[in-house]
Amino acid sequence: MVIIKFMNKKILNNYIKEIEIHIDENEAINDLKSLIQIDSRTNTQNENQIIEYWESRYSELGLENKLHKTSDNRLNLISNLKFSTNSTSIIFNGHLDTNHIGNGWETDPFGGEIINNHIYGLGVSNMKASMAAMFNTAKILKKIGLNDGEIIFTSVLGELQGGVGTQTLLENGLRGDFFINGEPTDLNFMTIHAGTYSFTVNITGETRHLSKLDEATDATLIMNKILSELYSLDISKNIENENEKKLNLIHIGAVKSGLGENFSEDRPPQVSDNAVIYGSVRFTNFSDIKNINKEIETIITKYKKNYKNSKIDFNVQTNNPIMPPIKTELSERTVELISNSNQIIKKSSPLIGQFSPYSLYGTDAGHIVNKLNIPGFVMGSGGKYNTQPDERVSLKDYIDNIKLYCLLSIGLLEKKYDY
């Protein structure tokens, strides 16, 4: 059972006054700009530079830092803010790698430009704004000074490869009593999120000129038939909750077909002999993975029998870990703390639970819940303009994000856990 010391609105109001005294908004915005201006596109050679920079910034605050490398030498950072030992600890978790640059940008992806009270840049929503908010939380709470607890700030790479950075930290002993993951939710509090993994279907046929179609095994034709069945496959039928059903789906992200191993496109009269389907699965029950894969394999087996000269292989991702789903229970007092903090800072009632599209994004929080079995939530600034050209975040939301992280940390560290 969790026993929680009461923290009412009056106490929280006193704390927010102190927090606002210590917030330097211009400085906080410059902290975020400095992150945007570092190119940390995922799985690139420059990626480690942002972790090295972030370590230096946390060191300036006097926090205890430790670096851990993934198996492919990608850096991940733990920064500890200790107020006391042998007491409650909160894990703040987030990633600093970003997506790559798509078409359609009209602003500089690495500029950190401010237009109409929004800050623009690649990865600002996913999720450099939340990472800068965590840093400023450390800065402010260190100035305020608390009596109890420890906050563990984790800054990782490889979230976009299944969460390999966070998984590495957990394998190296990361532990805590409560987690806050900063994926973009437009400052809503998400406690239910789909797990995710990817798969491929590789199809090899036999090529002939179109004059000999009856002798050919057309890889593109087989691919299209498999696609039709994958699109109509319902993997939510065992889920009872109607809202949760929406988090269980198969998506086809890319396909390609053509001639030979390079998928040559310059001979349309030739029957294609090579095709690949790239798919992604969202799911809410870890136990369902086996059944989902079995249903896909049943489709594959059908077309193997129908096209005996073909070779069709279904493979679940092996180079990246599967991201587990999260379903966390928050105590009444934690919900009360969230509600009171939101009312004080945003003058509104918070959304808590499952909501779209955020619950389909993908989050390292799944690894934390799966490994540590601790309560927590996903909450961060950004989301509305997430991972799109001219990605941006409202400056007001960013500053509110800092205030919420500070006030919630103070409230959560008042908790005393009795297992």
Structure description:
It is elongated and about 80 Å long. With 419 residues, the protein is an alpha+beta fold. The N and C termini lie close together (6 Å). 43% of the residues are buried. α1 (9-22) packs across α9 (332-346) and α2 crosses α4 (124-144). The protein has eleven helices and 19 strands. The strands form six sheets. The protein has a six-stranded mixed sheet with strand order 2-3-7-4-8-17, sandwiched between helices. The chain has a four-stranded antiparallel sheet with strand order 12-13-11-14, with helices on one face.
Topology:
Elements: E1 2-4, H1 9-22, H2 25-36, H3 47-60, E2 64-69, E3 75-82, E4 89-95, E5 114-115, E6 118-120, H4 124-144, E7 150-156, H5 164-171, E8 178-181, E9 189-190, E10 192-193, E11 195-204, H6 219-231, H7 242-245, E12 249-258, E13 274-283, H8 289-306, E14 311-316, E15 326-327, H9 332-346, E16 352-353, H10 365-372, E17 376-378, E18 392-394, H11 395-412, E19 415-417
Parallel strand pairs: 4-7, 4-8, 8-17, 9-16
Antiparallel strand pairs: 1-19, 2-3, 3-7, 5-6, 6-18, 10-15, 11-13, 11-14, 12-13
Poorly predicted regions are 1-5
Largest sheet: 6 strands, mixed
Strand content: 15-25%
Structural class from helices and strands? alpha+beta
Question: Can you describe this structure in just a few lines?
Answer:
The chain contains 11 helices and 19 strands. It has 419 residues and is an alpha+beta fold.
Notable characteristics:
19 strands, single chain, 4-stranded antiparallel β-sheet, alpha+beta, disordered N terminus, 6-stranded mixed β-sheet, 22% strand, 419 residues
